[in-house]
Amino acid sequence: MLLTVACCRFASSTASSTGPLRVCVIGSGPAGFYTAHQLVKRIDDVHVDILDKFPVPFGLVRFGVAPDHPEIKNCINQFTVLARKEQCRFIGNVGLGQDVGLAQLRPHYHAVVLAYGAEEDKELGIPGEDTPGVYSARSFVGWYNGLPEHRQLDPDLSGEVGVVIGHGNVALDVARMLLTPVSRLKTTDMCTHAIEALARSRVKQVRLVGRRGPLQVAFTIKELREMTKLPHCSTLIDPSYFHSIKSLLSELPRPRRRITELMLSVAENRYDYRGDKRPAGGKEWGLSFLRSPVEIVSSPTTGRLDSLRLEINKLQGTWDSAKVVPTGEFEDMECDLAIRSIGYKTVRVGRDVPCDPVTGIVPNVAGRVLDRNKSYIRGLYCSGWVKTGPVGVILTTMNKAYETAEVIQEDFRSGTLPEPERGDILEKLNNELGVDTVSFSDWENIDRHEVREGEKKGKPREKIVDLTQMMDIVHKSR
Ligand SMILES: Cc1cc2nc3c(=O)[nH]c(=O)nc-3n(C[C@H](O)[C@H](O)[C@H](O)COP(=O)(O)OP(=O)(O)OC[C@H]3O[C@@H](n4cnc5c(N)ncnc54)[C@H](O)[C@@H]3O)c2cc1C
Ligand SMILES: NC(=O)c1ccc[n+]([C@@H]2O[C@H](COP(=O)([O-])OP(=O)(O)OC[C@H]3O[C@@H](n4cnc5c(N)ncnc54)[C@H](OP(=O)(O)O)[C@@H]3O)[C@@H](O)[C@H]2O)c1
């Protein structure tokens, strides 16, 4: 009901447009670029500025996607073509909420699109979470992928047993990086500091602990299959988890059935759970189900991570919606390294940026941003993980970005966008606010430098992980 009222209020506003439609997209990840791409494709006279807090573009395509999955990064080629077009301009090194506020940006544009992703990770909220030896997947991924804030993480890989908490694709990425032979990683764009640390790593076993069962895993079959094929690495899954599931297989939707069949076949055939086929000296990984961490226990002598206290769960309900019911029984899982991989989190980037206080998501309907009264805010939109929460692969993000572009186009056509009151934002950023902005050709100079450094080591690139060094290259190349 509230929304209907809001729509009426929205539709009654008018704005006549002269000159190009001016749009500002905040965030240069897949959401930002795909929204811009669709706007440029759909609207003849449009100009899109894509702002990012980093001097380098592409968000999680650079800082998230695993180094051994270079094909996933091919979308960068499409983004580059777009960024070089006249209708589009990348403005890097500008943080919303840090360098410029939303209220300062909006008068320069007909529409502003929030696409700043999910910049934090969820926490378990259990005792001991900050124990030395415990890391978030976001920081671990950021460390091997060159995210400036995590470049110095230097995780302790001196023990043999690692646990990853969570059964999503990020958890599999992290486990795969820990267990893949370094000879393979050396030819990827993984940062050299991480390759060197992984070469020294003594981690031999990685256990992925999930709070629900085999029918609720969030990872996908391609990524699971890849894990089962890791060289010199066995897969350990207890087949007893599947006893009650086998009879349900034919009822499952196809993707769920196929992934369950794969886990089952691995559990029954590929490895003897009792351990008598375990290859000597090899590595292993496995899945544990129905376990929720309730405490991270440290050694009384060293203060370092000693074990995870897990509560055993049962499930109530079926399929994806099955709920965890704690049984009151506990077990301890000894480990030397623990990585929490239970999802990312969208955070508020400024007091004037609408944000759900619990989820961090920008309240919206199909990408049109809502205020506290659930009325549309004219000319304000969102796209990507700020719109949906931190779930979905790049393809999902692309489809949702297209939806946002479509509603912007609709609102433009119906004359409901506010008319810009001010001129080019670049002048304000550079001259008034003193921001050292980075253009796309500046990024291309950083890019060339990274590729050159990579070539010397037989890698696609050696990422620069220090912001000052990035800016030095920008200044020297101008
Ligand atoms: C570890 C990991 C691996 C993944 N691997 C895959 C994969 O292999 N295949 C796949 O299809 N999907 C993968 N995904 C999912 C995919 O990365 C997401 O669907 C997609 O990146 C979401 O796009 P986004 O633009 O919303 O967010 P992001 O990619 O996070 O982009 C957000 C952008 O906003 C910028 N930003 C943040 N705050 C501000 C601010 N205050 N001001 C200005 N700019 C800001 C950031 O610097 C960033 O460039 C992976 C996700 C993760 C976490
Ligand atoms: N190769 C790829 O295509 C690729 C690679 C990486 C990421 N991605 C995508 O990026 C998105 C994010 O991935 P993600 O792995 O971060 O998130 P995710 O897919 O949402 O998985 C999160 C996992 O953490 C568990 N979890 C959440 N809260 C928990 C808690 N409090 N205690 C214990 N476990 C908890 C979830 O279990 P419940 O189900 O019980 O909540 C789930 O197993 C996904 O869409 C993913 O597919 C894709």
Automatic annotation (TrEMBL):
<dbReference type="InterPro" id="IPR023753">
    <property type="entry name" value="FAD/NAD-binding_dom"/>
</dbReference>
<feature type="binding site">
    <location>
        <begin position="211"/>
        <end position="212"/>
    </location>
    <ligand>
        <name>NADP(+)</name>
    </ligand>
</feature>
<keyword id="KW-0274">FAD</keyword>
<feature type="binding site">
    <location>
        <position position="385"/>
    </location>
    <ligand>
        <name>FAD</name>
    </ligand>
</feature>
<keyword id="KW-0560">Oxidoreductase</keyword>
<comment type="similarity">
    <text>Belongs to the ferredoxin--NADP reductase type 1 family.</text>
</comment>
<feature type="binding site">
    <location>
        <position position="223"/>
    </location>
    <ligand>
        <name>NADP(+)</name>
    </ligand>
</feature>
<feature type="binding site">
    <location>
        <position position="31"/>
    </location>
    <ligand>
        <name>FAD</name>
    </ligand>
</feature>
<keyword id="KW-0249">Electron transport</keyword>
<keyword id="KW-0809">Transit peptide</keyword>
<protein>
    <recommendedName>
        <fullName>NADPH:adrenodoxin oxidoreductase, mitochondrial</fullName>
        <ecNumber>1.18.1.6</ecNumber>
    </recommendedName>
</protein>
<feature type="binding site">
    <location>
        <position position="392"/>
    </location>
    <ligand>
        <name>NADP(+)</name>
    </ligand>
</feature>
<keyword id="KW-0285">Flavoprotein</keyword>
<dbReference type="GO" id="GO:0005739">
    <property type="term" value="C:mitochondrion"/>
</dbReference>
<dbReference type="InterPro" id="IPR055275">
    <property type="entry name" value="Ferredox_Rdtase"/>
</dbReference>
<feature type="domain" description="FAD/NAD(P)-binding">
    <location>
        <begin position="22"/>
        <end position="178"/>
    </location>
</feature>
<feature type="binding site">
    <location>
        <begin position="392"/>
        <end position="394"/>
    </location>
    <ligand>
        <name>FAD</name>
    </ligand>
</feature>
<feature type="binding site">
    <location>
        <begin position="167"/>
        <end position="170"/>
    </location>
    <ligand>
        <name>NADP(+)</name>
    </ligand>
</feature>
<feature type="binding site">
    <location>
        <position position="96"/>
    </location>
    <ligand>
        <name>FAD</name>
    </ligand>
</feature>
<dbReference type="GO" id="GO:0016491">
    <property type="term" value="F:oxidoreductase activity"/>
</dbReference>
<dbReference type="InterPro" id="IPR036188">
    <property type="entry name" value="FAD/NAD-bd_sf"/>
</dbReference>
<feature type="binding site">
    <location>
        <position position="60"/>
    </location>
    <ligand>
        <name>FAD</name>
    </ligand>
</feature>
<comment type="pathway">
    <text>Steroid metabolism; cholesterol metabolism.</text>
</comment>
<keyword id="KW-0496">Mitochondrion</keyword>
<dbReference type="InterPro" id="IPR021163">
    <property type="entry name" value="Ferredox_Rdtase_adrenod"/>
</dbReference>
<dbReference type="Pfam" id="PF07992">
    <property type="entry name" value="Pyr_redox_2"/>
</dbReference>
<keyword id="KW-0813">Transport</keyword>
<keyword id="KW-0521">NADP</keyword>
